[in-house]
Amino acid sequence: MTRFTIAVTLLAIVSATRPAGAGIADTPLPVLDPAETTLHLYSVTGVIEQGVLSTYFSCTSTDSAGMKVSVEVFGSLGGGPASDAVADTVTVVPGGTVLFGTRTPSWTVIDKLVAVGVLSRGSARILATSKKLVCTAFLADAGSAPPTSMSHLTIIKKTKQKASN
After folding, report:
1. What's the pTM value of the predicted model, to 2 decimals?
2. What is the pLDDT of residue 128?
3. What is the C-alpha separation between 61 and 130, in angstroms, rounded?
4. Fewest 10 Å CB contacts: which of 8, 34, 45, 139?
5. What is the spatial distance between Cα 14 and Cα 27, in angstroms, rounded to a whole number?
6. Three-state SS for 157?
7. How far apart are CA 50 and CA 48, in angstroms?
8. How far apart are CA 81 and CA 97, in angstroms?
9. What percent of the chain clears pLDDT 70, i.e. is strictly above it?
10. Is residue 153 within 8 Å of 44, Cβ to Cβ?
11. Number of H helices and number of E strands within the chain?
12. What is the dihedral of CA 43, 46, 51, 56, to 10 degrees?
Protein backbone atom coordinates (compact mmCIF):
# COMPACT_ATOMS: atom_id res chain seq x y z
CA MET A 1 0.00 0.00 0.00
CA THR A 2 1.16 3.49 -0.72
CA ARG A 3 1.19 6.23 1.89
CA PHE A 4 -1.62 7.97 0.03
CA THR A 5 -3.85 4.86 0.21
CA ILE A 6 -3.14 4.45 3.93
CA ALA A 7 -3.91 8.13 4.59
CA VAL A 8 -7.21 7.96 2.67
CA THR A 9 -8.20 4.75 4.50
CA LEU A 10 -7.45 6.27 7.91
CA LEU A 11 -9.37 9.43 7.03
CA ALA A 12 -12.40 7.34 6.00
CA ILE A 13 -12.31 5.39 9.28
CA VAL A 14 -12.03 8.53 11.43
CA SER A 15 -14.83 10.28 9.50
CA ALA A 16 -17.16 7.30 9.79
CA THR A 17 -16.86 7.16 13.59
CA ARG A 18 -17.68 10.84 14.20
CA PRO A 19 -21.12 11.32 15.85
CA ALA A 20 -23.79 13.07 13.77
CA GLY A 21 -24.82 15.36 16.62
CA ALA A 22 -24.25 15.67 20.33
CA GLY A 23 -27.14 17.66 21.72
CA ILE A 24 -27.48 21.41 22.03
CA ALA A 25 -23.92 22.28 21.03
CA ASP A 26 -23.56 20.83 17.56
CA THR A 27 -26.80 19.36 16.30
CA PRO A 28 -27.69 21.31 13.14
CA LEU A 29 -30.29 24.03 13.64
CA PRO A 30 -33.70 23.35 12.12
CA VAL A 31 -35.21 25.84 9.66
CA LEU A 32 -38.09 27.61 11.43
CA ASP A 33 -38.81 29.91 8.48
CA PRO A 34 -37.30 29.39 5.00
CA ALA A 35 -37.09 33.18 4.54
CA GLU A 36 -35.11 33.79 7.75
CA THR A 37 -32.08 32.42 9.59
CA THR A 38 -32.73 30.30 12.67
CA LEU A 39 -30.72 31.49 15.68
CA HIS A 40 -29.74 29.49 18.77
CA LEU A 41 -30.32 32.16 21.43
CA TYR A 42 -30.38 30.28 24.74
CA SER A 43 -29.67 26.90 26.33
CA VAL A 44 -31.38 25.39 29.35
CA THR A 45 -30.28 22.44 31.44
CA GLY A 46 -32.41 20.53 33.95
CA VAL A 47 -35.34 19.86 31.62
CA ILE A 48 -37.67 17.27 33.19
CA GLU A 49 -40.91 15.63 32.07
CA GLN A 50 -41.54 12.93 34.64
CA GLY A 51 -44.00 12.25 37.45
CA VAL A 52 -45.73 15.53 38.35
CA LEU A 53 -42.89 17.75 37.11
CA SER A 54 -42.89 19.40 33.70
CA THR A 55 -40.74 22.10 32.14
CA TYR A 56 -42.05 25.46 30.88
CA PHE A 57 -40.39 28.14 28.75
CA SER A 58 -41.83 31.67 28.67
CA CYS A 59 -40.53 34.04 25.98
CA THR A 60 -41.36 37.68 25.19
CA SER A 61 -40.53 39.48 21.97
CA THR A 62 -38.75 42.83 22.29
CA ASP A 63 -38.72 43.28 18.51
CA SER A 64 -40.86 45.68 16.47
CA ALA A 65 -41.59 42.88 13.96
CA GLY A 66 -43.03 39.40 14.36
CA MET A 67 -40.70 36.42 14.76
CA LYS A 68 -40.74 32.62 14.86
CA VAL A 69 -39.78 30.99 18.17
CA SER A 70 -39.34 27.33 19.12
CA VAL A 71 -37.95 25.10 21.84
CA GLU A 72 -35.89 22.02 20.97
CA VAL A 73 -35.43 19.44 23.76
CA PHE A 74 -32.60 16.87 24.02
CA GLY A 75 -32.27 13.78 26.21
CA SER A 76 -29.65 13.15 28.88
CA LEU A 77 -27.30 11.33 26.49
CA GLY A 78 -27.16 14.15 23.93
CA GLY A 79 -27.65 13.00 20.38
CA GLY A 80 -30.51 14.21 18.22
CA PRO A 81 -33.48 16.18 19.51
CA ALA A 82 -36.31 14.52 21.45
CA SER A 83 -38.78 17.08 20.08
CA ASP A 84 -39.66 18.54 16.69
CA ALA A 85 -38.66 22.22 16.73
CA VAL A 86 -40.22 22.92 13.33
CA ALA A 87 -43.61 21.51 14.38
CA ASP A 88 -43.32 23.34 17.71
CA THR A 89 -42.70 26.76 16.12
CA VAL A 90 -44.90 29.66 17.23
CA THR A 91 -45.20 33.08 15.59
CA VAL A 92 -44.76 35.80 18.23
CA VAL A 93 -46.16 39.26 17.56
CA PRO A 94 -44.14 42.36 18.52
CA GLY A 95 -44.17 42.60 22.32
CA GLY A 96 -46.02 39.29 22.61
CA THR A 97 -45.35 36.50 25.11
CA VAL A 98 -45.62 32.77 24.46
CA LEU A 99 -45.48 29.80 26.81
CA PHE A 100 -44.08 26.41 25.76
CA GLY A 101 -44.53 23.37 27.99
CA THR A 102 -43.60 19.70 28.03
CA ARG A 103 -47.12 19.00 29.39
CA THR A 104 -50.39 20.91 29.41
CA PRO A 105 -50.76 22.23 32.97
CA SER A 106 -53.99 22.53 34.94
CA TRP A 107 -53.14 26.07 36.09
CA THR A 108 -52.76 27.97 32.78
CA VAL A 109 -52.95 27.72 29.00
CA ILE A 110 -49.79 27.05 27.02
CA ASP A 111 -49.21 28.19 23.45
CA LYS A 112 -47.33 25.07 22.37
CA LEU A 113 -46.93 21.57 23.77
CA VAL A 114 -43.36 20.34 23.26
CA ALA A 115 -43.93 16.58 23.22
CA VAL A 116 -40.89 14.69 24.53
CA GLY A 117 -42.29 11.64 26.33
CA VAL A 118 -40.77 10.75 29.70
CA LEU A 119 -37.54 12.64 30.32
CA SER A 120 -35.80 12.37 33.70
CA ARG A 121 -33.10 14.90 32.78
CA GLY A 122 -32.32 16.75 29.62
CA SER A 123 -31.49 20.07 28.01
CA ALA A 124 -33.10 22.46 25.56
CA ARG A 125 -32.28 25.14 23.00
CA ILE A 126 -34.47 28.19 22.56
CA LEU A 127 -34.49 29.10 18.89
CA ALA A 128 -35.80 32.19 17.10
CA THR A 129 -35.59 34.19 13.90
CA SER A 130 -34.68 37.36 15.83
CA LYS A 131 -32.19 38.10 18.63
CA LYS A 132 -34.74 40.37 20.31
CA LEU A 133 -36.24 37.78 22.64
CA VAL A 134 -36.13 37.44 26.42
CA CYS A 135 -36.96 34.11 28.06
CA THR A 136 -37.20 32.28 31.33
CA ALA A 137 -37.63 28.59 32.12
CA PHE A 138 -38.99 26.76 35.12
CA LEU A 139 -40.10 23.37 36.44
CA ALA A 140 -43.60 23.16 37.85
CA ASP A 141 -46.18 20.68 39.09
CA ALA A 142 -48.47 20.35 36.07
CA GLY A 143 -51.40 18.76 37.89
CA SER A 144 -52.07 21.15 40.77
CA ALA A 145 -53.74 24.54 40.39
CA PRO A 146 -51.92 26.54 41.62
CA PRO A 147 -48.73 24.47 41.29
CA THR A 148 -47.59 22.97 44.59
CA SER A 149 -43.97 23.12 43.47
CA MET A 150 -42.04 25.38 41.12
CA SER A 151 -38.34 25.92 40.47
CA HIS A 152 -36.45 28.37 38.24
CA LEU A 153 -34.05 26.94 35.64
CA THR A 154 -30.92 28.84 34.62
CA ILE A 155 -30.83 30.00 31.02
CA ILE A 156 -27.48 30.66 29.38
CA LYS A 157 -26.59 32.50 26.18
CA LYS A 158 -26.09 29.85 23.48
CA THR A 159 -23.54 27.55 25.14
CA LYS A 160 -21.57 30.10 27.24
CA GLN A 161 -22.27 30.20 30.97
CA LYS A 162 -20.88 32.95 33.15
CA ALA A 163 -19.09 31.94 36.37
CA SER A 164 -21.84 33.27 38.65
CA ASN A 165 -25.55 33.40 37.90
Report:
1. 0.84
2. 98
3. 9
4. 34
5. 19
6. strand
7. 6
8. 24
9. 85
10. yes
11. 1, 11
12. -40
